[in-house]
């Protein structure tokens, strides 16, 4: 089901993360602290329950969910969102909705990297995260935000 995602993934660098966090309404001080964080992403599966933990110096978060079932989530920047995660062609697709806004997070494994595309539907930024497993220090984790078309 989600075996390709299981493991510990380390963030090694970020590019323009501030643009995305600003777009979703994160305050200046929190954006600056979050931009310096290098969290580990730990993904595990127990039966039909998937758990994604983010552990870092800024804040720890954890979500546990079943594919296709909506759940309440408190994001690292303390937004209360409704999330649903599905598996589509080997890609974990998460949609977060709050206050008339939404973000889509797509996680996929590519060449031993966890690539995470984040799109704020209410804005114009695309974020790309590439975590690496901690078992291979040569793998890169990057977060990139670039202009994307407004939907």
UniProtKB/TrEMBL annotation:
Tell me where it resides.
Cytoplasm
SUPFAM superfamilies per UniProt: Lipocalins
- Renumbered to this chain, the signal peptide range is none
InterPro entries the UniProt entry points to: Calycin (IPR012674), Fatty_acid-bd (IPR000463), ILBP (IPR031259), Lipocln_cytosolic_FA-bd_dom (IPR000566)
Kindly indicate whether the keyword Metal-binding belongs to this entry: no
The segment(s) forming the Lipocalin/cytosolic fatty-acid binding domain are 6-115
Q: Any idea which GO molecular function terms this record carries?
A: lipid binding
- Keyword set for this entry? Cytoplasm, Transport
Chief location: cytoplasm
Q: Name one GO cellular component term.
A: cytoplasm
What is the top-level taxon of the source organism?
Eukaryota
> One Pfam family name from the record?
Lipocalin
Q: Which family does it belong to?
A: Belongs to the calycin superfamily. Fatty-acid binding protein (FABP) family.
The identity of this protein, by name, is (raccoon dog) hypothetical protein
Q: What is the lineage of its organism?
A: Eukaryota, Metazoa, Chordata, Craniata, Vertebrata
